[in-house]
Write a structure and sequence with these properties.
about 220 residues, Metallo-beta-lactamase, Chain A, about 25% strand, 6 helices, alpha/beta, 7-stranded mixed sheet, about 25% helix
């Protein structure tokens, strides 16, 4: 597996030979130094909810790459009206083999028809925008992801304290903070999050810069 941070909550993931782009927020992101051409060809585009900083460039990339577009049903249906040919509308708790990769749609507590995703058992969990919830322990028990991508920005989502508890519940080998420092309201120190996680559990916290990749 490989993951590449696209800034904010966006990631480019390579899992079981498939490239998945999650929540690409680039062209409208004033803090981003990337361009859409910097995003590799995707097999799957996944969107955790409808807010502008997550839906972002997803429709354009899905049409560019003729990729499968995966989200909750309302968002997937909207993408279809905008010209995306292959859409998969998963409800919370549902799963589907999308273009050869198992995608599991998980609960998220937020607005905008939210969800999270687990990409393959023993794979990668993208929590989406969410607060802390105890059933993250069930995600660990059922799917045993190796990597958790967790928001730490506070205000709209979990902050560092809550996200560190989430890491403890999930028990993943690696934890990657996301959704922080894009806007003043979500200004956070990822090193503080790392310290909090280290106190609770032995997971390795990877603080990635925009465009940086990590091989697992």
């Amino acid at each position: 597996m490989r993951l590449r941070y696209l800034g904010h909550a966006g990631f480019e993931l390579l899992i079981e030979g498939k490239t998945v782009v999650v929540d690409p927020f680039i062209t409208q992101n004033e803090s981003s130094h990337l361009k859409l051409d910097d995003v590799g060809t995707a097999d799957i585009i996944a969107v955790t909810h409808s807010h502008f900083d997550h839906l972002g460039d997803a429709v354009e990339l899905a049409k560019r790459d003729n990729a499968f577009f995966v989200s909750t049903p309302e968002i997937a249906d909207e993408a279809a009206t905008k010209g995306v040919k292959e859409v998969v509308g998963l409800n919370l708790g549902g799963s589907h083999n999308v273009n050869g990769l198992e995608v599991i749609c998980t609960t998220a507590f937020h607005s905008g028809n939210p969800c999270g995703f687990v990409f393959a058992e023993n794979g990668i969990y993208h929590a989406g925008d969410t607060g802390l919830f105890g059933d993250m322990a069930l995600i660990a028990e059922l799917y045993a992801p190796r990597v958790a991508l967790l928001p730490i920005g506070g205000y709209f989502t979990m902050g560092p304290k809550e996200a560190a508890k989430a890491a403890e519940l999930l028990k993943t080998r690696y934890v990657v903070p996301m959704h922080y420092n894009t806007f003043p309201m979500i200004s956070q120190d990822p090193e503080e999050f790392k310290r909090l996680v280290t106190k609770r559990i032995g997971s390795e916290v990877l603080i990635l810069k925009e465009g940086e990749s990590f091989e697992l």
